[in-house]
Amino acid sequence: MVQSVLLTGAAGRVGEAILADLADVHEWRLLDRDPPTGEQPGEFVVADITDEEAVREAMDGIDVVIHLAGDPRPEAPWDSVLTNNIDGTQTVFEAAVDAGVETVVFASSNHAVGAYETDERTPEMYRADDDYLLDGTELPRPGNLYGVSKAAGESLGRYYHDEYGLSVACVRIGNLTEGHPPIDYERGQAMWLSYHDCAHLFDRCIRADYGYEIVYGISDNDRKYYSIDRAREVLGYEPQDNSAEHD
Ligand SMILES: NC(=O)C1=CN([C@@H]2O[C@H](COP(=O)(O)OP(=O)(O)OC[C@H]3O[C@@H](n4cnc5c(N)ncnc54)[C@H](O)[C@@H]3O)[C@@H](O)[C@H]2O)C=CC1
Ligand SMILES: O=C1O[C@H](COP(=O)(O)O)[C@@H](O)[C@H](O)[C@H]1O
């Protein structure tokens, strides 16, 4: 079924991957603080997600929000993640509930759980013959303030689901790289998410029925320390790519 989708952070890399495959599949309203370049598949709202009035206006008539906008830098300072990632995300959830939106899909990150990668476990856990696996039920364990902001976004989603019945999927995205997995980077190969699998995963988040979910967003890599079982079971995610096929 075609859904009316608001995509925040639409001008970025994850937005590009999603729209590359899904531009004609749903009805899009795009939002970013950076103006668009080139032709767009829908109305483009130039706004900052901390601008409550603009975000409320952008929610009008929307079924699903994919919330990508934020500071994506693992080394981002506190003032930026506080404003863009935590305050901005709260503004998006609050406006979504008030507008009667059914589902919000939140771009969380591997960095929400980065501190599980201890000196004792690495680099072995990045390899195909190691069986260490995180499945999304573990507590957040951020390794930087950016990761803290993503854990906060997951908690905001939990609150808006429990309090208001909003359907929320938090996708702990791995390493999105176009065309091939990261080169000479074992960790990045273990958490590679191809552009096609990224678009497919977010399409499943738009279409599936769920309450509150945390899933990992990686391709079906032989090397992996994030389980994709939950994404398969609840969302119907069927990834096609595997970083091992690019060795
Ligand atoms: N690319 C990756 O491998 C991963 C990305 N993520 C998350 O996915 C989301 C998108 O990441 P990317 O596309 O890689 O980053 P990006 O930097 O390419 O795109 C982010 C977009 O959000 C916009 N934006 C930032 N702050 C904003 C604000 N306050 N108001 C309105 N627009 C704002 C930027 O202008 C930019 O177009 C981020 O939340 C990031 O944390 C998570 C894990 C991995
Ligand atoms: O959350 C994110 O994670 C990816 C992968 O992390 P890295 O530490 O292996 O680079 C990162 O590339 C991306 O910018 C970030 O938003």
From TrEMBL:
SUPFAM superfamilies from the UniProt entry: NAD(P)-binding Rossmann-fold domains
Pfam family, one: Epimerase
Domain of life where this protein originates: Archaea
Chain ranges of the NAD-dependent epimerase/dehydratase domain: 5-176
Chain positions recorded as NAD(+) binding sites: 84, 109, 146, 150
Catalytic reactions of this protein: D-glucose 6-phosphate + NAD(+) = 6-phospho-D-glucono-1,5-lactone + NADH + H(+)
Catalytic residues, chain numbering: 146
Gene3D superfamilies assigned to the protein according to its UniProt record, in alphabetical order: NAD(P)-binding Rossmann-like Domain
Single biological process term from Gene Ontology: pentose-phosphate shunt, oxidative branch
Pathway: Carbohydrate degradation; pentose phosphate pathway
Alphabetical keyword list: Carbohydrate metabolism, Glucose metabolism, NAD, Oxidoreductase
EC number: 1.1.1.388
GO molecular function: glucose-6-phosphate dehydrogenase activity; NAD+ binding
Assembly and interaction partners: Homodimer.
Entries under NCBIfam families matching the protein: G6PDh_Azf (NF041293)
Family: Belongs to the NAD(P)-dependent epimerase/dehydratase family.
Function according to Swiss-Prot or TrEMBL: Catalyzes the NAD-dependent oxidation of glucose 6-phosphate to 6-phosphogluconolactone.
Record-given protein name: NAD-dependent glucose-6-phosphate dehydrogenase
Species assigned in the record: Natrialba swarupiae
